[in-house]
Amino acid sequence: MYSLVIPLYNKQNHIERAVDSALRQTKAFQEIIIVDDGSEDDGASLIEKRYAGKVKLVKQPNRGVSAARNAGIHKATSKFVCLLDADDELEDSFLETIDQLNTMHPDCKIFTVSHYVCIAEDCKARNPEGKTFKTDKPVLRYAFNYGLINSSSVCMEREVLLQFPFPEGVKDGEDIYVWLRAFSHHALVHSAMPLVLIHKDADNRSALRDDGIPYHLSFFLDNPSDCSWAVNVFLFLNAIRQCYGYSALGRKAYVANTLNLLKKKRPFWYLLASPSLIVSPRVFFAAKKILGRL
After folding, report:
1. Cross-strand bridge partners of residue 117
2. Which of 28, 37, 200, 261 is 20 to 30 A (C-alpha) from 276?
3. Do residue 95 and residue 190 come from a single domain?
4. Which tens digit of pLDDT belongs to each residue from 83-96?
5. Domain that holds residue 54
């Protein structure tokens, strides 16, 4: 009933951790599909040697993480597809919990769990005070709670992922685009139990980003017919947070590119976000501490 798709690109130092966590599940995946996206290291060879007969390895030329995810989703034979980045790992009861949520809400097509954010050995739960819930308006819940979903903490009906594939050739915002498209059409069930470890210090994770405009922002602002009121709320909060947050982190080119888009498409948003280029990091982080998580 459940397939797991893991995109792999130059992650030989971490892929064993991810695969081992998938194989340890108290409820087994029907299949584990690893899509090697033209890796230049020995990650694919490691998979072939250590996990022969336990996982399905798909090889393709390097086309990016979105293409790798899409390829795995197309290869999957289960009704539901779970995603896991090669950097990350699952707690042993991840799939058992997803299946319990599915049993309680058989009409739902999207299931997520909370997660830990890990830097070195320090792991902190993203929503330690949260609760399990079902929402028919997941876009609005997502606008105020980024811990609602992550590319390693979601299990979605395969047909939904085929309906809204990951945009290929995109390095930033490709996952948020898919979540917003899916959330606009389907309800979501979320467990507050942190059952995924997101490793922020893993090799290559930060190198995947560039200073271009996030795809989800450019797509929806360029396609107003797909941009519902709820999506607008999400985009507004997301753009403001990212402009001030990335400015504080020194990514001025990213902020400038985003501001140029806002100036053309959402002038009022631009007025609110433009001071981000001159606000000092000290002021931003002080405000963040008072107002809560970015």
Report:
1. 124, 198
2. 200
3. yes
4. 999 999 999 999 99
5. 2-206
